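Input record (one chain):
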Amino acid sequence: MGRVKYKFTGTTMGGSGEQKLSGNRDIVSGSGGNGAIPLEDSTIQVTVEWKGHKEEMELSTGASRK
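The corresponding structure, as predicted from the sequence alone:
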């Protein structure tokens, strides 16, 4: 799969990084963020880039979708 770049931002937290995939479907990183915990009922914007592709998504910490 090669290298993957990722970025995430929320109201109280954010981070980014680049990593070579190890063959499983998870990206686990011990660095690249500010260590803050997202607020309840908040959203986190995530961008993932790999091999010329880019995907953006929104994650929720429990807020109902509108």
